Each structure stands twice: as structure tokens, then as C-alpha cells.
Amino acid sequence: MESISLQDKFDVLIVGAGAAGSLIAAKAVQGGKSVLILEAGPERKLGDLESSQISARKLKWGGAPVEESGNHKIGNSFNSGYGTGGSALHHYAVWLRLHENDFNLATEQGVGLDWPINYKDLMPYYDRIQAEAGISGDAKAEKWRPQGAAYPMPALPVFAQGQVIAKGFNKLGMAVSPLPLAINSQPFKGRSSCLYDGWCDAGCPIGALANPLVTYLPQAFAGGASIRHNSTVSRVLHDASGRKATGVEYFDADGAVHQVLAEQVVLSAFAVQNARILLNSKSTKHPAGMANSSDKVGRYLMTHPAQLVLGLFDQQTDCHLGATGGQLLCQDDYANKDKGEAFGSYQWLIANATKPNDLLGIATGRADIYGAALDPFMRKAAKHFGQMNFVGEDIPLEDNRITLSERSDQFGLPLAATHHSINERTRALVTEGVNKGVEVFKAAGATETWTGPTVAMHLMGGTVMGADAKESVCDQYGRCHDLDNLYIAGPGLFPSSGAVNPTFTVHALALRTVEKMLAAS
Amino acid sequence: MNSNKTSDATDTTRRSFLKTSAMAMTYMVGGKALLLTPAAAHAAQMPMKVLSALEVTTLETLCEAIVPGSRSAGIAAFVDYQLAEKPHNALLMGRYLGLEPPFAPFYQQGLAAAHQAALTQFDRPWSQLTESQIKSLVDQMFTDAIANWSAAPASFLFFVWRADACDVVYGTQSGSETIGMPYMAHIAPSDKWLSAKELQK
């Protein structure tokens, strides 16, 4: 393999062009820094985001295979992105705040890990991010919502599917609110409002959904940031002391090796690949991998256990309308984490916009219907289908981890091997929640109800933050304990998962990180 | 090497949509590139790139039994084209289901197992089975009831092939609207897919 020394040097080098990397790039250039982003995947443009569940698959992970084992595999290919915008390009824009009781799991519940910060530390960053990127919602209607500024836009409309299912919650004495979405219910900062056509999973080409192509990447590029696509980072470089990162080495699409130098380095390549890069960055100063003196790199890998409750109703539901993430929210079972045999918070994302095909489509959930019975079912379901998604908390377990495989990718780099299992208390949480969900559907008048498999939703952990350098990888700002200028950004920092979608928190943490970086330089 | 901007190209014509469409497939005919949907490729009997003739008839027959309409919708052309693509460009739902690239061995081993089951139980290939024999085999696949199955679990293959067939039958604009679900595309496909004949004009 030919090594080419470009002698490039930047103030800030960012690995990964997803939600966190994009935000950090924008704020860094606005702070006067020269910035380079290295992205493993190809360039994505708004015009690429055609409305097709089939086409949407190209937005998902397309890099080196990720090995998966355990009783609850992480679903890396579905949960990860590939190319400009990363997973945030196809995310569903459910922007929820972690709750106050999510930050002290070990202290308050005796399981898992504590965060090195509390909700009050993060609240002002949530408020600033929602003012910048835009969220539509009804803060007062979210009776479970922690303190914070009201949303900058009114909630999106609730269509027939949401109205039908809401009746079931109401009959059981449970509350629902509009789902807060980073989707414009009205024009916002030059971006158009949503058309409610349910193509979020395929990427939103009109700018109504707050993906990096319309939020922070334009700011980054306007400020002079550069991006190199198809650039696979292999390792982080450091100085003679081992305390300072000096840059990274990467492979371009042709397999040529490059080195780029920087004053500050940010790994924002998502939970699995960040850990893979660190573990592959072994040296005499870092024999177990970069930033891994604690042996915690790769550990506490988490994902939200999720399960669909689905059904048919007499009423017409217009299930193709709305947002993929859903129309309504219920967090009635969030506050009480210790449920006896079960453990954890959970929430319902209600009335997801649904298409006929694909993993979350109408047909896929009923593999038992085939042959002559399929088409009549599809025609009925197209008018009368409803679904909602159980999202549960995952207990951070040290043995759920990312390691390096003995197998290698096309560049000779070890593959990431992931192991993730849920324990009995988490499994009991899923069972309890899904049983409740079926009750809700029956109360709503479903003529037929079924459930999907328990799947992995979102990826978190692997480079967790913590107050103790012996028990975590990063400090509260995402700076690696072992190096002065190497930062981690993204959901890999989470010491616990909560039960809410992570993207809003990813943004809030990244804003804290970049402001610390700018202050440090 | 560096790029400091992304372009926005939402003004998509019918032809440019086909060029980028998930389902549009490029064939070289007489030195010219031909853009076809799976259905058009099936109608035009375009040559396969990966699957053999036996694999094509096996896949078409069993998929037609699972998702009626999938043969004419071009299930074989769709799968064959995606198997020939580089893995990160392949648009098979199996990507979400833990399949590791290359994907062709998974499909071909499954089709070989299905073919062998037809021979073992009925002494003839899928394309020569009666409707009741096909239904019997499909039912056995769904329940993993076929003895000596030498591939990925039959029920998993059933799930994957059913998903592929649903893609070509229900995952298109016309397929969605046929069952009464408005497609409502942001970046709209054409009202009608170009047929091979139209493209050759």
C-alpha cells in the first residue's frame, strides 16, 4: 500500500459527517478554525433522496461488515448511516430530551453507570439546539417533559391513525401528547414546512426535517470547512509523549494511505466505528489501543430494545400520512424505572407513517400471510392499518462490547466485532410494555392485533463518558481521559441509554464539546 | 479532492429519476446503456448477470407463489441486478437482516436447496410443479419442515424472498397506488415506467 504524505494540517480534524461532526464543524469554523471532515461514505445531496423505501437502503451502513453476536444483536446496518449526514440523514427526527432520572442510574437504581453531568447541565444546550435547528411540538401537553424552553414551532397535525390509536390510551387512562419532531410544522429559517407524506426514512429532500444537509453542514461549508468523502480512517496518530493526538491516517477509495495533521481531533464516526478506530490505534504508548488505559473502549455498548404493536381498525387510518417517527407520544411509564422483575423506562412512539414494503412496512410484519391471501390483506391494510413502537431502556452492561475481529476489511483493517445481549430484567420490560400496547390497541377497537420481533433501535455506548478515568473513556466534554486533544462525539458517549431517541442529546453534547474545544485552544 | 459544498438538485426529470431510481437498472445493449425497471427487464427478457436459468425459474416460481404478481414485476431481474452490484450499492432488504456481502452465495445456496427439495419430493424442478405441489413446498419452507435443507434456514429465506417480492410488487408507485395507498413522492417518479420498447426508440 502506497503511503502519501500530504502534509495537510488543520486546526480541527473531524472523522464522520453525521449529526455530531457536522455541528462541531460548523461551530469550529465560526470560531475561526480551519476544519477538515473525513467521511467514510460517499457524498449525499438532497437530490439523491428520492422517495422510495428501496432507495433508502443506500443511505444505511455500506462500509466494512460489522460482526454481530448476542441475544439482541445491534442491527448495525439498519441503525448506521454511510455518507454525508451519516445516520442523521435518514433519521426520523424524534427529538426528545433525556429525563432527569436518566443521569444517575448507578447511584439511584444500583445498576449501570452514572453520567458525569446532570440534566441541568445539558438543559441550556437542548434549548439552544432546538432554537437553532427547529422542533415542532407542544411542551405543555408533554406532562412528562423535563424543564426547558417551549418548542419554537407548534406541533405537527395528528392524522386519522393517531386519532384512532389515541382513543385506546385514553380509555386506559393513559396520556398522549403530540410527538416532538425536528420537522418544520411551518417555514423555519429558510427551510420549508413538512408535506406529511411519510418519506422520512428515505431522507427528506425539501429541508423540512433537520438533517445535517440543511442544518449544520451548510454552515460548516460556508465558513470554509472541507470534506473528503470515501475516506476510511484507520488510526489516530500521536506525539512522542502519547498525550497529544497529532492527526489521523486514512485510506482513500483507491486504497492509497494518507495522513492529515491537526491541533484537535474529533472522532464522530458513530458508536461502533469510533471504538474500532481507537482499538486499532495501538502503539507503544497505547498498547491496548488509543484512550484505552481503562480497558473501557468498546464496552457498555447499548441499543434500545424496540418492538412494534400493529393492528387493523374499522376506521380508515390514512397510515401513509405523517412522519415515520410517529404522531403521538406516551411516556406514562418513564418515571418509574424499578418495576420489580422488569427494569427501565419506556415510551410509545405512536402512529408511524407506514409504507407497503420494507422492514417497517405493512407486508413485512405479516410474513404468515402469503399467496392468494396477501393482496386482499394489503388492500385492507392500506386503508385500516395502525402501528406504534415500544422503545425501552437498555441496561449498560460491561460485557456488551465492541472488539476487533480476526477478519479484515479491504484495507487490511480488523473488522469490528460486536456482542450485545439484554438481561432478564430488560426482557421483562419489553414483555410488560408490549402486553400493555396490545391492551391499548384492543381498547382502541383494533379488529386484529399482532406484534413484531424485539429489535435493536439506536446505537449507544462503547466510548462512555464518566468522572472516573479508570471507569470511562471520556470526560464530561467528550475529551479522552488519556489524551489532551482527542475528542469523541456522538451517542457512543452515553453511559446509559434512557429510553428516548438519542439524536437531540447527541446535538446537545456536541455543542458542549465544541465550545470546550474552542475554549481550550 | 476537497469539496466545500453540496449541490441541491430536486428538479428531477423522468429520465434523471430513472437514472438514480432504486429500481432502474442499467443494461448495455448494442453498446448503448438501457435503463429498465425490473418489470421492463422481465418483459424484454434481458440477460441475467449472476443467476443461472435454473435459479431464475426457481426464484420466479416460488416468489410468484408467495407474492402473486412478482414474476411479471421482475423479481428475478431485480434480485439478479442487485446481486451484481457492489455491496454498498445493493438495495436488497437483506442488508438490514444481517446478511454479509457478497450476497450472491446466500441466494444461490438457498435456490439450490429449494431446487433439491423439489427434486426430492416431486422428482421435477419448480417450473414443472403443479400449483398444489408449489404451495406444499412453500408452506414447508415457511415452517422449516423440509428435511435435509442445505442452506440458510428455509423460513429465513422465505422471509427474505417474500420481502424482495413485496419490493417489486408493492414498493413502486404503481404498486402502492394499486392497493389504494397514495404514493406522495417528494421526488416524483414518472407516472409510468419507461418500457424497454420505448427506451429503444
Structural key phrases:
heterodimer, A: 521 residues, alpha/beta, FAD/NAD(P)-binding domain, 7-stranded mixed sheet, 7-stranded antiparallel sheet, 10 helices, 21% strand, B: mainly alpha, 9 helices, 2 strands, globular, disordered C terminus
Structure description:
The complex is a heterodimer of chains A (521) and B (201). The longest helix of chain A is centred in the C-terminal third of the chain and has 20 residues, at 424-443. Chain A has 521 residues and is of the alpha/beta class. Chain A has one domain: FAD/NAD(P)-binding domain, CATH 3.50.50. Chain A is globular, with a radius of gyration of 22 Å. Chain A has helices at residues 19-30, 76-79, 105-109, 119-133, 160-171, 216-222, 270-280, 374-384, 424-443, 503-520; strands at residues 3-15, 35-38, 66-69, 177-178, 226-228, 232-238, 245-251, 257-267, 302-312, 328-330, 338-339, 342-343, 346-350, 385-392, 401-408, 414-419, 448-451, 455-460, 486-488. Chain B is mainly alpha-helical and 201 residues long. In chain B, 48% of the residues lie in helices and 5% in strands. Chain B has nine helices and two strands. A two-stranded antiparallel sheet of chain B has the order 1-2. Chain B is globular.
Mean pLDDT of chain A: 97
Task: Tell the overall outline of chain A.
Answer: globular
- Estimated helix fraction of chain B: 40-55%
SSE topology string of chain A: EHEEHHHHEHEEEEHEEEEEHEEEHEEEH
- The quaternary state of the protein chains shown equals heterodimer
CA radius of gyration of chain B is 18 Å
SS content category of chain B? mainly alpha
Which of globular, elongated, flat, extended, rod-shaped describes the shape of chain B?
globular
User: Tell me about the biggest sheet of chain B?
Assistant: 2 strands, antiparallel
Tell me the CATH architecture of chain A.
3-Layer(bba) Sandwich
- Label the structural class of chain A: alpha/beta
Give the domain tally of chain A: 1
Question: What percent strand of chain A?
Answer: 15-25%
